[in-house]
Amino acid sequence: MGFIFSGVFWGSILILLGLSVIIRIVFNVHVPLFRIVFALIIIYFGIRILVGGSWCRGNCNSNTVFFSDTKAEFAKDSKEYNIFFGKGIVDLTDSSLALQKKKIKVTTVFGSGEIRISPEVPAIVRVTSAFAGAKMPDGNIISFGEYIYKTKSYSDKSDHVRIDAKVVFGSLEISER
Question: Residue 124 has what DSSP assignment?
Answer without folding.
Answer: E
